[in-house]
Specification:
This protein has 398 residues and is an alpha+beta fold. The chain has three domains: 60 residues, RNA-binding S4 domain (Structural Genomics Hypothetical 15.5 Kd Protein In mrcA-pckA Intergenic Region, Chain A), CATH 3.10.290.10; 97 residues, 2-Layer Sandwich (Pseudouridine synthase); 157 residues, Pseudouridine synthase (2-Layer Sandwich). The longest helix is centred in the middle third of the chain and has 17 residues. It starts with 49 loop residues before the first helix and ends in a 16-residue tail after the last helix.
């Protein structure tokens, strides 16, 4: 981490971003300068805990958790809660509520903002009147069983922590672990964060999402203050995210910009994002920069991806749209007569490689995740070097 001696993630020093372009490119960004290669941070070094070195970032004093209402009540969103998602607002105000219960009262319209129905992802404004129905906690587990399970969960979270201080936590989410609960989903990161609840009742909150099968950097806020600040950072697109992917074929040109509209399409047994037209109901604009880092002949390419927007399945849908789907993608890989090279696992080859955001208090958080085991195996078999210079550094900011 940069700035006033704060703690740093394992893996050595943070990567240094390349020079920014002054002009935005509409179709592609210029080729990367090949003059100097940069060495990626060494991975796997033991994590330094901020408590050992004395982080300058101290947690804000938190108010005790509000009691659960036994009747309907209306509360006003505070200035600190401005910009917070409706579902995160409920989590922060009433620690202990299950995610399913929160989603249920929102879906049924029992919770309203300024008299209107809302979605969980809608954002609050300071002073908004939030109507809250009677709430109830799930039945607690037997204490001894819960304690053993909670300790195992804490150990697991510690084992995947890339960076931590008093305000934020960056996890290296494994492939196959869901970020949030859903239909029939009982094990997920959001549920695990419950074991990190502090003595004031505050629990860490998700700041953004990753698909279940995407591995890598997942940013978590440990305090309400951090959650509100980071939510504004993501809304203003000040967060810099870089992904690595292995795709079928080699894109031409080797560096470019993909700009489409995406809309959700419901199918019999699943939903996915499809390319849509401007003005189409439910369609959202999505922009992605890509750069070829290296290739394995003409059959496979290692891409670095920089999403400007954060739409559901954006990178997966965009890669499929340009005819180079991500290897192992069960939803979007529809290339006919294409065989997976021997030795590669048929799993999604997509990694949230790096996240760089302004720290809620000062300085910058800049964390890099290592390749997950199945991608490391592919890199080894294909002779790809993870230390190779990443040309996405040259992509312009939007």
């Amino acid at each position: 981490m940069k700035g006033r001696g704060g703690p740093r993630q394992p893996g050595g020093g943070r990567q240094i971003a390349g020079p920014r372009h002054q002009e935005r490119s509409r179709q592609r960004h210029p080729g990367a300068r090949a003059a100097q290669s940069r060495t990626a941070a060494a991975e796997g070094r033991e994590r330094r805990r901020p408590h050992d070195g004395g982080s300058p970032h101290r947690a804000a004093a938190s108010a005790p958790a509000a009691p659960l209402p036994t009747g309907v009540q209306t509360v006003a969103a505070t200035a600190d809660e401005s910009g917070m998602r409706v579902d995160r607002f409920l989590e922060a105000r009433f620690p202990g509520l299950s995610f399913s219960h929160i989603q249920r009262i929102i879906r049924k319209g029992e919770l309203r903002v300024n008299g209107k129905r809302v979605d969980g992802k809608d954002r609050l404004e300071a002073g908004a009147a939030v109507r809250i129905p009677p709430l109830k906690l799930d039945a607690p587990k037997p204490r001894s069983a819960a304690s053993d399970a909670d300790e195992k969960t804490r150990q697991f979270l510690r084992s995947i922590t890339l960076y931590e201080d008093d305000d934020v936590l960056v996890l290296n989410k494994p492939m196959g672990l869901a970020v949030q609960g859903g239909s029939g989903m009982t094990r997920h990161v959001d549920g695990m964060l419950e074991v990190l609840r502090d003595r004031d009742g505050q629990r860490p909150r998700l700041v953004h999402r990753l698909d279940k099968d995407t591995a890598g950097c997942l940013l978590v806020a440990k305090t309400r203050f951090a959650a509100a600040a980071l939510a504004k950072t993501f809304r203003s697109r000040s967060a810099r995210k870089i992904y690595w992917a292995l795709v079928a074929g080699v894109p031409r040109p080797r560096q470019g910009r993909i700009s489409t509209f995406l809309a959700k399409e419901e199918r019999e047994d699943e939903s996915l994002m499809r390319i849509a037209h401007h003005g189409e109901k439910g369609a959202s604009h999505a922009v992605t920069y890509y750069a070829v880092v290296d290739t394995a002949g003409a059959k496979l390419a290692w891409l670095s991806l920089k999403p400007v927007t954060g739409r559901t399945h954006q990178l997966r849908a965009h890669m499929a749209h340009i005819g180079h789907p991500i290897v192992g993608d069960p939803k979007y890989f529809t290339k006919e007569n294409w065989e997976l090279p021997g030795g590669l696992q048929n799993r999604l080859h997509l990694l949230a490689r790096r996240i760089a955001v302004p720290h809620p208090r000062s300085g910058e958080i800049d964390v890099t995740a290592p390749l997950p085991p199945h991608m490391q195996q592919s890199w080894n078999l294909l002779g790809l070097d993870a230390k190779r210079y990443d040309p996405i550094e040259e992509a312009p900011e939007e």
